[in-house]
Amino acid sequence: MRDLRRRARWATSTSAAVLLFACGRTGDGTDAAKRDSAVNGTAPSPTSWCAKIPRPENVRFPRVDVPGDWHEVYRVEPGVFAITEPRQFQEAIAYLIVGDSSAVLFDAGIGLVPLAPVVQALTSRPVRVLNSHSHFDHVGANHEFEQVLALDLPFTRGNEGGKPHGDVADEVVPSAFCGAPPTTADTAAFRSRPWRVARRVTVGDTLSLGGRVLEIVAAPGHTPDAIVLLDRSNGLLFTGDTFYESQLWFFADETDIAAYDATMSRLAALAPSLRRVLPAHNTVSAAPSRLADVANAVQVLRDGGGVRVIDEDGVREAVTVGDVRFLVRRARAAATAPARPQ
Question: Across all residues in the chain, what is the average pLDDT?
């Protein structure tokens, strides 16, 4: 989740959801522009993130027409649809993965505009929803579906009740959008709605869709309930917020850098068997080799390395390791890592 709450709130609140961005290659200031536009209450400049929309990495995939004018859908693989929300700064991406007999919706967006009509236009098969983690920008449309699967963890249960408008109001300020908000969205009353779980799942479970099997793989670090979905036979890894092409941010208490280090090491080991990584923000596809880049960079970060710049609030520290960028709470930046096997 990418949270543009004001700097004072970042520095003082530990209840705000952790921000975890994956690595960015370009260093073009896009993320800083998103933050600053919301902090200052001004529209993003033409050189900021709005100028990147539509992202070239996405438009090389076939576009699929769906109802409404908010979601943009791309067919990334046979039976795999990336449902994007590019005109809100989160640039959240949900994936509809369709098999011969059923489908899984991996993540459910921010919830500004109904998602169920889009899903129904893409498949007539029964759909189960599973979230990569329970931050609000991934569970927004959960309430629209009857078959929601979830882990049985305190962090997940704590988020099932949704969030009031005051907790998510910064997601719908004018500068959070490229252009106008969706015409059907009531931004003054926007909230993250409660959702009900139909069935609890556990790490290691598999979801059979008919001709396609998805494995639920633990990926703690961004949150305690973070998971990735592995489509082993097709060489696909759906990474949620565990990886995507931007900046890794570690803030709130639920973030665990040591756990993230272990997660990325395990995922990097999968890379030789993968054809494609499918992240939950910004771009709908990435090279599997990026997993090893991040895994190596996290180890350097934890060992106290990288180029470091203290943020203006004195609480955060930007750390760059090669082309991987982090923004961490200073107390965590040089956290002592347990000994690793040599």
Answer: 86
pLDDT value, residue 260: 95
CATH superfamily of 7-333: Ribonuclease Z/Hydroxyacylglutathione hydrolase-like (3.60.15.10)
The pLDDT assigned to 248 comes to: 74
Quickly tell me which residue has 């990584």 as its tokens.
277
CA angle 138, 237, 82 (to 5 degrees): 50
Q: Could you give the count of Cα atoms lying within 13 Å of 179 in the half-sphere of its Cβ? A: 9
Say how many CA atoms lie within 13 Å of 255 toward its Cβ: 25
CA distance 235 to 273: 6
Query: What's the order of all strands across the beta sheet hosting 227-231?
Result: 206-208, 213-218, 227-231, 236-240, 276-279
Mean pLDDT of 210-236: 97
C-alpha distances in Å from residue 205, one per residue of 24, 209, 215, 252 = 32, 13, 6, 29
pLDDT tens by residue, 114-136: 999 999 999 999 999 999 999 99
Report the distance separating Cα 32 and Cα 120, nearest Å: 36
Q: Above 70 in pLDDT, residue 139?
A: yes
pLDDT score, position 190: 97
Domain ranges of the chain: 7-333
CA angle 331, 334, 336 (to 5 degrees): 105
Q: What DSSP letter does each residue of 1-15 carry, written as one string?
A: ------HHHHHH-SS
